[in-house]
Write a structure and sequence with these properties.
alpha+beta; Protein Transport Mog1p, Chain A; five-stranded antiparallel β-sheet; 3 helices; 32% helix
């Protein structure tokens, strides 16, 4: 890129390996769900200690929305978490091939206003991921 777009306009992502540690994909997903729930409970406890007058100066959390789904994409098992918050869209994926001993974690995010432009690229990326066993 000759110029990097401002953060508010940027779409970006990353991919990393998640070790299976001898677990099945379903067991790994359950473990990740529990970690996520524990993290949310810890955040709730921290938020309870913050005075309301301070929270009022932050961005509104009322628009935070999260959905998750499990599905197959060809031979691949996928757990996807879609989140919208303030002006951003996030898509997290755990992707596994039954013959592989690893899971790929794929994080993508972009501004909500750019999602219509981002969606075809997102669908193409998801559709072309290959995990070689």
């Amino acid at each position: 890129f000759d110029t990097v777009p401002p953060w508010e306009e940027a779409c970006w992502g990353f991919i990393e390996d998640v070790p299976m540690e001898g677990l099945s994909f379903e067991e790994l997903i359950e473990k990740e769900k529990k970690k996520k729930e524990e993290s949310e409970r810890a955040l709730d406890r921290v938020m309870e200690m913050i005075p309301e007058r301070v929270k009022g100066t932050w961005g509104a959390n009322e628009d935070y929305q999260e959905t998750s789904e499990e599905f197959t994409l060809g031979e691949y098992e996928v757990w996807r978490i879609l989140t919208t918050w303030e002006d951003r869209f996030f898509a997290d994926h755990y992707i596994h091939h039954p013959d592989a001993d690893r899971v790929i974690f794929l994080h993508l995010e972009c501004p909500k206003k750019s999602f219509d432009e981002f969606k075809p690229l997102y669908e193409e990326m998801i559709g072309t991921i290959e995990l070689k066993p």
